[in-house]
Every structure is written in C-alpha cells, then in structure tokens.
Amino acid sequence: MRDFLRAIDISQLRSLAGPTARDLALRMLLLLLVLAGIQAIADYYELRHVMFSKVEQRASSVSNHLAMRARLDDDFDVEEAAQAVTREAIWNEEFLAVYLVDKSGALLKGEATSRLPATKSFLSQPEIHTAISAALVLERPQSFAINIDGIDGWVYAAAIPGTGLATVTFVDLRPARADLNGSIVATLFSRFVSSVILMAALFLLLHRSVIGPVERLASAVRKSAQGRFTPPADIPRGELSDLAQLFARVFGRLQHSLRDNEQLALVANGTDSGVLIADRAGRILWANASYMRMTGFERAEIESYFPQDILARYGGIGAMKVLAESAADGEARLVETISVNRQGGQYWASIEARPIRDQRGAIRNYILVETDISHRKLTEIKLKRSQTELQERIIELQQASIQLEQERAKLALTAYDLSLAKEAAENANRAKSAFLATMSHELRTPMNGVIGMSDLLLNDDLTPEQRDRISTIRESGECLLTILNDILDLSKLEAGKVELEPAPTQPAAVLDAVIRVMRPTATEKGLVLTRHCEPGVPETILADGARLRQVLFNLVGNAIKFTPRGEVSVTLSAHMMPDGRRELVFRVRDTGIGIPAAMLPRLFTRFQQADSSISRTYGGTGLGLAITRELATLMEGSVDVDSVEGEGSTFTFRIPVETCAAPAAEEASTAKSDHTSQAPLRILVAEDQPVNQKLMSAVMERLGHKLTIAGNGVEAIRKLREAQFDLVLMDVQMPVMDGIETTKAIRASNEPWRNIPIIALTAHAMEGYSANYIAAGMNGFVSKPFRVDDLVAQIAKVTHGDAAASESVAPPPPPRIVATASTKNAPEGALQDMLDELDRMTA
Question: What predicted TM-score, i.e. pTM, was given to this entire model?
Fold first, then answer.
C-alpha cells in the first residue's frame, strides 16, 4: 500500500491544484483576449466594408442620376451633363472632384469645381485612365481606393448610356477612416475590460470551489499512507465528494488485489508472447515486457490509450486492430496477420483477443495475447510457394507439349502451303518468262522491219523533209527497243539470272567508246561532251565490259537527255582500297535541269522519274537508273547522285576492280577484222515474215551478197539439198519446223552441208537463249532488230575469223526431231526418213 502511494506521489495533488487553477484562469483570460481581438478585427472589416459600400453608393448617385436623365430625356446632351456634374461637385463636400470626360478620356467639365491640387495629373494616372476605358467599353462602373498626393480617396468611374460620356467621382475617405478607427478602438477597449472582469470573477470562484477542497483531499490521501483512508468531511458535495469516496473504495480494493496482481505480472512477464490488458471500452491498462520488446513501444506510448489513438499515429499495428474489433462487438478473435512494429518493420503474428466477463456475464476486461510466428509462417510460405511452382511447372510442361503439337501441325500445314506456293511461284515465273519471251519476239519482229528499213532509206538520196520523217521513224523504233531492253534487263535482274562475265577490260577504252557513240547525240543538241581520265587509272582490269558500258551509256545518255544547254563531262579516276583492290570512280556531271531534293530518295526506284512531266517532256520509262543501280550492286559497287534543281546533277559510279594483264593482240586483230569488207557470199535466209524477207533482201543486196530465202525450216533443208551456200541466217520461230529443230537436223545429216556456218537471226533475245542456240549447233547469234554493222561482224566471224573453230566443233548427237502439227515424231538416227518426209511435205 505504501509503495502504491509512493508511486502515485500524492503530494503532487496539493502542489498542482493551485497552479493548475491559476494557469487555467490565465489561459482562459488569454483566450478571451484573443477572441476579443479576432472579433475586433472582424468588426473592423465589417465596418470598413460598410464604409466603402456607403461611399460607393454615394459616389454612384452622380452617375445613376445622369444615366436616368439620359434614358428619360431624349434631348439630353453634353451641356446638361456638364451642369449636373457641376451641381453635384458643389452640393457634396465629400466629393473632392466630379469630372465629365468623353470616350477618349479627355476632360469636358469639372476642373473648376475640383478640390484636387492637379486635375490633369489625376486623370493621367494609369489606374484612372484604365478605369475610364473599361467603364466606357464594358458599360460597367469601375471603383477602387487610391491615394493621390497623400489624399486617400475612392474613385468611381461610370459611363452615361447612349452618350459616349463618362463621369469620374473622387470621394474623400479621410473622415470615414477616422470614424472607423475611433469605433474600432472603443470596441477593443470595452471588450478587453469585460474580459479582465470576467476572468477575475472566474478565478475567485475556482479557488473557492476547486482549489481549497483539492488541498484538503490531498492532505487526507497523504495521511492514508499510515493506515485507512478517511475522506474529509468539509468537501462540498459534488464531483470532489464522489472522488473522495472513490479513493476510499479504490484504496480498500488495492490491498486485496495487490497479491493477485503481483502473481499475474510474474506469469505475464515470464512468457515470450506479448500480453495486453484492456478495460471493457478497449482502453489499454497494462502491457508486459515481451510486448514491449516485440513492438518497440514504451509503456507511456500505449498504456491508458485506446487502440484507435495508437493506430492514428502508427498504422498497421495488428494487435491494436484486433483489440479494436473485439471491443467493438464483444466477441473473441483469433487471427494470423502481418503486423508492424513501432519502427515500421513487418512480422507475422498470431493474435488472440478474449473478453473477460463477470458473474453476471458483463464484459469487465479484454486480454490480448500476440505471438511472433514469422519463422513458422515463412516456412509455410516457402513450402506453399514450392508446391505452387511445381504445379505451375507441370502445367507449363503440359501446355508446352500441347503447343509443340499444335506448332508441329502448323509447320506441317505451312510446309504444305509453302510447297503449293513454291509450285505456284514457279508456274508464275515460267508463265512470266514465256510471256516475256513471246512479247520480246512479237515486238522485236516488227521493229526489225521498222529500224532496218529506216536504215536502208536513210542511205538513199532523200529530201530533207523525207530524211527527217524517216529519222523520226527510226528514233521511235530505237526508243521502243530501249524500253523493251530495259524491261528484259529488269526481269533478268529480278529473277537473279544476270551473271557477270569478267574479262580483261580497258576502262579508258570503254569510256572512249561510250563518248564516241554518244557525241553525235550531244552535238545534235548543241551540247559539249567531254571526258577526262586522271592519272593512276589502271590500263586493264578484270570486269564485265558489256555491263560496264551499259551503266555508262545509261548515265551519259540521261545526262544528255536532261541537259537542254551547256555541257556534259565524264571523269574517270581510281584509288587504292584497304583490301588491295582498286576502286574506279566515274563522275558524270551535267548542267541540266537538276533534281528536286524531295525526289532524290526515290530517284533509283523502278518506273519513277523526278516529275511526271519529265516523261512527257523527255520520254523514258524510269527504268534506266533502277537498272543502273542494280547492275552497280551486282558489281559490288554503288551509284550516288548530288543535284541542285535548275543547276545540274552529278552522278558518281564506283566499282571495286582487280587489275590484270592486257588482252592478247590476236583478239584485237580479230575485232578489227569483224568490220572489214568481205567477198560476196551465197547466203540462205530462213525467214517467214514477208517484211523481214524484204529487209534481208535489201541489206544483202547492199552488201553485195547473193541471197536465197526459205519460208520455213523444211524449205531451208530442201534448198540446201538443191544448191550450195556459204552461210545460213536462221530465224528461230517459223511454221512447219522452227530454227532450232532445223539446225539439229542439218548437224545430224551426213550431207556435205552439215557443217555450214549458221547464225541465229531472231527476236528471241531473252537471257539464256543464245546458249540454247549454240547448244543446238549454231555458230553465232544476232538479235532483232539488228544493226547492219553487227550482222556484218557476225558474218565475218563465222565465215573467216572463226572458220577453224567452227570446223573443229564436233556435231552433236542425232537429235530427237519433234515434228510440228504437220509432221510426226521421227526416231533417232532416221534422218533419211525425215528428209523423205520433208520431200513429201513440200511436194
């Protein structure tokens, strides 16, 4: 008992009673003073608002009066407004100035009656000028407080409706402010005096009713340390009297429950679990040491507090949540949850809260036990996680198996679709090749007549007009032939069938040949075509000369085509590459129309030109540069362009090459002999087209050769059997028997003419056809439309330059002759039967 009294330090009860009451009185006095000050401030602003409202209402009377007169009086004018402004300024002493201004802000009336030092300075103030403009434009009054030359005043600017005029009233605020300040001081003083008197009376009342009885109660409590507690008899009835009786009951019960409490504390503090004891409302009365260690709280932070109070400061305390829920409905709780300690650390906890009831069943207390189960819970979580991962892995494997089976089925279906697509693509490619071959033949055949006849006519004596017309015909044919060649080249590049044929080539000679061929075209347009070969260019390289010439012809031809005036220059240079090869650089520069910068990215796209009007003006299909770039790529090179619209373009063609030895001298001599004049020959032409027959007759007549014409392969064999010939010019596509079957029949015969030179003269010019003709036994190939020079060179090659080579060619094995609709299949080696059949057919 003595320990309990010593713990609560009863002596403090008396020592704190007086100061606490005095502090309370002083605080209440301070509170009343603060409230009085706040009320005074509120009164100030309220009176200030009333003051400004009265001032603005008084100032608006001028503008309202003029506005009413303007609406009611149709003859209201500036003069009447000026008179009214003057009267208002004279009658109202608080108006220091009343001005009448027009819509530009110019003063009309009021300077004479103004009591301001400087009227113009007042109206020139930015705030005044802005208020006047806003009032006139918005037709809404503008008012505000302002200080002019040390004078506090209120400005009110308002427009007079329908007149374009405005009034500006300046009201003196100094009298009103003086009245306002006096009222506030008087109010504040009266409130302060009232607060002091009230607090003095309150302090005396507290001392009589509280401080004295508390001192007597403290003395009785202090004496109870020697024995039984006796409440003072002179304590007034009320709360203090009840408190004295409560002290008596509490001190009596403490003696009986002290031993039980000590035993309970020993048990609660000896366990590792945290224990809380709360009253029936949930207020925490006691916590053991284990709970303090577990949560990190101090006793003062939780004892005597409700769970809600602790949760408001430290959220997530699991024991507090469970205790609050149990206290709310009076039911027991047993939960496992993640709780947090005072520092915010998380741990798993098993929390049990149970209500303690008295003999009547009413809840007296709550006991809460919290146990840290983090280790066990983490073990359970790991076990469950392992089980879940194992199940997920099994499911994934099953799904993967199903997906693999589905993918296998898809792959099988895809393989089948790809095989069908491959077959369709191959069929389409074959159809495309057949179509291109047919179109090439069908277009080249008539163009052969057009170009060939035009060449023959141009060598005749013609009038200038006739020569111009025939030249136009020939140029049109050449344009069509160029388009056809571009389409065929593009088709071969797309199919990947273009293969380079590297051979010793002299780049300077190739450039000279291109310049020599293109110079007449440039001269005809009035252009200067120049070439320059820089030092260091190798004399001989290993390259495909034909493709190199094709690229240069395209670049130089384009430069001439798109240059209306000026010059075209071609420069050839070379430099070493890191891998030891040389890089040839051809630069073709022109002073032509140039290319817009926006069109440069698609310049090398197929069927594209810089502008749609170019094809109408200059012609062309837009394939030349596309083919040029693809040929350059095929040669491991590149083509770039640098152009300025209206100034010209520079195309740069680069290819890596290897140097090699110069070609043999005998090749050059053979090349020269291709164009030498030849002795008259007996030539058999197998040609079914009447126009081409006429053309060949005219060409051979001009060359001095004797010509015999056969309309098909059967007739050609018949004529070979009837007469002797030096050469056969063999068309490929003919009725009855085509040129290839005819050639095979000639080579398979035992006749003296079996080794006669045969040149394929055909419009079938697709890639690979020439190899087929050579394989069939032909000695040369000239495509239609042909140039007379090319035909003469090929004739010289097979009849003179390559005679020895042609004789050394062994005849192919006897062919299987496939007859046309007019013939039947002939067995191998039965050439005589076939010739007899031909005789019967021609009979």
Answer: 0.38
Looking at residues 789-812, what average pLDDT do you find? 63
| Proportion of the chain in helix, strand, coil states, percent, rounded to 5 | 55, 20, 25
CA dihedral 726, 731, 732, 734 (to 10 degrees): -120
347 forms bridges with which residues in the sheet? 339
Query: Tokens representing 331?
Result: 């039911």
Listed residue (56, 89, 90) closest to 158, CA to CA = 56
Contact 662, 581 (CB under 8 A): no
Mean pLDDT, to the nearest integer, of 220-237? 66
Quote the CA–CA distance of 191 and 763 in Å, as a whole number: 124
Contact residues for 810 (Cβ-Cβ < 8 A; gap 6+)? none
User: How far is residue 246's CA from residue 253's CA, in Å, rounded to a whole number?
Assistant: 11
Amino acid letter, residue 839: D
Residue-level pLDDT at 71: 79
Give pLDDT, residue 9. 47
pLDDT at residue 816 greater than cutoff 70: no
The b/e string for 371-382 (b: 16+ C-beta within 10 A; e otherwise) is bbbeeebeeeee
Regarding predicted confidence, which is higher, 179 or 514?
514
CA angle 372, 376, 380 (to 5 degrees): 135
Separation of CA 613 from chain center: 35
The Cβ-side half-sphere exposure at 682, using a 13 Å CA radius, reads: 7
Question: φ, ψ for residue 263 (rounded to 5)?
Answer: -65, -40
CA distance 698 to 453: 8
As given in the structure block, the two tokens for residue 437 are: 């071959």
Q: Is 352 helix (H, G, I), strand (E, B) or coil?
A: strand
Distances (CA, A) of 454 to 460, 474, 780: 10, 6, 25
The answer for residues whose C-beta is within 8 angstroms of residue 669's C-beta and 6 or more apart is none
Pairwise CA distance, residues 59 & 143, whole Å:
9
In angstroms, rounded to a whole number, what is the distance separating the alpha carbons of residues 780 and 674? Answer: 13
